[in-house]
Amino acid sequence: DIQMTQSPSSLSASVGDRISITCRASQNIDNFLNWYQHKAGTAPKLLIYAASSLHSGVPSRFSGSGFGKDFTLTISSLQPEDFATYYCQESYTNPASFGQGTKLEIK
Amino acid sequence: QVTLKESGPALVKPTQTLTLTCTLSGFSLSNTGTRVTWIRQTPGKALEWLARIDWNDEKYYAASLKTRLTISKATSTNQVVLTMTNMDPVDTATYFCARIWVDERPPRYYFYMDVWGQGTRVTVSS
């Protein structure tokens, strides 16, 4: 299975900050990479697919980039509702592996 | 509106078999291209992909759990059922079902989970 490694594991930031989360695959996955947002007790939400395509209805402050093994999720100006856990997931193989998550907390 | 809703027991005993049901609304398993997956999140841990079933009854399982999992579909009731045998306290988790959507850009096909259920919490304890 492909191993997905996210960094950092946790991150403290303030409203209005620009933050980035990275995800590294153990092998080349081209641009078969998705990002999800999860808040406890709710359904996870798709943010980005194909590494950089914004899912319908997702605010434009979210963006994704990367190709091959290294990927980044960026939030340009944090809003209060953005504090959550973020997961990357490769869709290059079946089963598709998730990263371990990055918990974004309010500073 | 596309929704998925998980249901099942909140508590199971060790060694018992867990049966979870995912009820689909707004889309049908009988339609070509429909795919549904089960994923779980153990306390304090990341998301773990478990199994997937496609409209044509193709099935896929996580290698580490393959001997314990069975996924099936009931087209008449538009449901997907996941069973997991020999439950253990380490299987305590929130179990989610989700629709897999495919963005087709031939020759590339991008799979992602675009709609998820709220999840159902399962505790394994005697």
Sum up the structure in keywords.
heterodimer; A: 107 residues; mainly beta; six-stranded mixed sheet; 10 strands; 48% strand; B: 126 residues; seven-stranded mixed sheet; four-stranded antiparallel sheet; globular
Low-confidence stretches of chain A: none
Strand proportion of chain B:
over 45%
Biggest sheet overview of chain B = 7 strands, mixed
Q: Got a strand count of chain A?
A: 10
- Kindly, what is the distance between the CA atoms of the first and last residues of chain B, rounded to a whole number of angstroms? 39 Å
Average pLDDT reading of chain A? 95
Tell me about this structure.
Chain A is mainly β and about 110 residues long. Chain A is built from no helices and 10 strands. Chain A has a 6-stranded mixed β-sheet, with no helix packed on it. In chain A, a hairpin with a 3-residue loop joins strand 5 and strand 6 (about 55). By secondary structure, chain B is mainly β. Chain B is built from no helices and 11 strands. In chain B, a hairpin with a 4-residue loop joins strand 5 and strand 6 (about 60). Chain B has strands at about 5, 10, 20-25, 35-40, 45-55, 60, 70-75, 80-85, 95-105, 110-115, 120-125. In chain B, strands 2, 4, 5, 6, 9, 10 and 11 form a 7-stranded mixed β-sheet that branches. Chain B has a 4-stranded antiparallel β-sheet with strand order 1-3-8-7, with no helix packed on it. The interface of A and B includes residues 32, 53, 89 and 100 of A.
Spell out the blueprint of helices and strands.
The complex is a heterodimer of chains A (107) and B (126).
Chain A: E1 4-7, E2 10-13, E3 19-25, E4 33-38, E5 45-49, E6 53-54, E7 62-67, E8 70-75, E9 85-90, E10 102-106
Parallel strand pairs in A: 2-10
Antiparallel strand pairs in A: 1-3, 3-8, 4-5, 4-9, 5-6, 7-8, 9-10
Chain B: E1 3-7, E2 11-12, E3 18-25, E4 35-41, E5 47-54, E6 59-61, E7 69-74, E8 79-84, E9 93-105, E10 108-116, E11 120-124
Parallel strand pairs in B: 2-11
Antiparallel strand pairs in B: 1-3, 3-8, 4-5, 4-9, 5-6, 7-8, 9-10, 9-11
